[in-house]
Structure prediction request, 415 residues.
Amino acid sequence: MFEPIRRPINRVDNLRYLNDTVTKLDNPLCRIFKKNKLEDTLIGTLTTTRSSSATYVDMYGVLKTAAIGVPRQGSNGWLSEGASTNLLTYSNDFSNNVWTKANLTVVGNATISPDGTLTADKLVSDNVQGVRIATLIVASVVSGTSYTASVYLKPAGFSYASIFLDSPHWSPIYAGATVTIDLTLATSDNDLIKVKKLNNGWIRVEITAQSLSTGVIGTLSIVPKSSPSDNVNSVQGDGVSGIYVWGAQLEALPFASTYIPTTNTPITRAADENSIQYNGNVPRGDQPFTIRFKGVINGYANFNRIFSTETAVHAKRLIAYMNSSGNILLNIGSDENQVATSAITFGEVFEYIVTSDGVNYTSYLNGNFQAESLVVNPPTELSNELRVLCGHLLTNNSYGSCLTFEVFNRRIIWT
Prediction:
């Protein structure tokens, strides 16, 4: 018997492999989605498909566009998302009449946008005081659905702004109207508004609320502010200063996905699909195995899949999914809702490991033991595919990214 071997796997955890050799430690059945390398160890090929183009922010903080079917690598690994639709038209053209203006002027193509093109507009406040200075767009929504509005902002004489959902038919009412965003510090004074910093002085801000009615209502309103003391109905303008804006979006998700540009109609970004052949890369579910995923999930959508077989037939099923609280559970064979973990933090990197010796299932989160349960009715047949961050139904796709995905044909114990 070999002594336990330790090596660091992240900043807080150590990994211990029992009854194994160093050679086997670095010899998984498959390893995919490494940095700058989609395939590292694999029988067959990793299939990545998406029937539309899609944007992403690269490791340098620059917004890029990937062509149809081309994988996207960002700062948190390889990006994978479910489908989403930007319900706002003319998302880059704030001079269009779909955007109602109050006491401001739009200067078109005034500066370089987050994607490096000269397409960002400037909202210039009129030389007035104590009035509303804003631009607003309406859209069709469905009652009881959560929506997230987002937009890219940058100082242009003013260093503050507000964005809010401009209708009493939102919960909370006029969501975000009392929140001030500091464009220079990339902060907001309330957690209702989330702020993400990009390159070249740009930030992306987002707000989520639930619609209380069905129909066309006021959605995203953008207010340049001369100081934090301005409120959305009382701003001091000077006819020169304002803010740069680009890339407005409203989508039926409780978080913002990657930006989807539009012109005269809403546009849908297709779902990503990532799959490998099961045979040779993944043990059958009644055999010893360890599966390790490291990555980010941006928010809960619909029982987000961490990984999944292409079928839910119990004799072949191997699924790790997330519930609405952020706990990860295992459905394997006829054994359901096994070895639940504590909740992950959405938007932050986490490491999930599930392992079996044929007798027990065991789960770990960020190196910490989570749960153990008996193997009762494992799968006894091989599936055709294993999918990462997507399910046998694309409505179960996760919105996130993968830093690494590994499968071993043995049980590995983390301590």
